[in-house]
Amino acid sequence: MQLNDEQILIQEAARKFATYQLALHAAEWDRNATFPRDALADMGAQGFLSMLVPGQWGGVGTGHLAYSAALEEIAAGCGAVSTIMSGHNSVGCLPILQFGTDSQKEQFLTALATGKHLSAFA
Asked: Which runs of consecutive H residues, i.e. helices, occur in the chain?
């Protein structure tokens, strides 16, 4: 992948987060079947849960390349958290972004983008 300067900064931020916030706890979370709520809240605050959502709806709108680079780094820190991040950004946010009404985007997408709510997929 050829990343531009902004995408490299996002990748580095994800790597730092994964190293210091995820990797140190991932094995313990797995052993104890712990859902990492605090880590996910931090990810929402840093924009990792809204990488594909435009700023108009509370996201950071980094685009797919930066998202892919960040997701790879998060996965290196904790595979389970990267799965949550992936599902939340893609099947959680994108259908609302692409097919929802403005009212639905305001009601649901904004809360998802900021990490206030977490999507579910079944």
From this structure: 5-17, 26-32, 37-46, 64-77, 79-87, 94-99, 102-104, 110-113
Other C-beta atoms within 10 Å of 31: how many? 8
The CATH number given to whatever domain includes residue 102 is 1.10.540.10
Counting residues of the chain whose pLDDT is more than 90, the rounded percentage is: 95
Number of structural domains (the chain) is 1
Q: Please, which pLDDT band fits residue 121 given cuts at 50, 70 and 90?
A: confident
CA gap 91, 3 in Å, rounded: 25
The whole domain housing 69 covers: 5-113
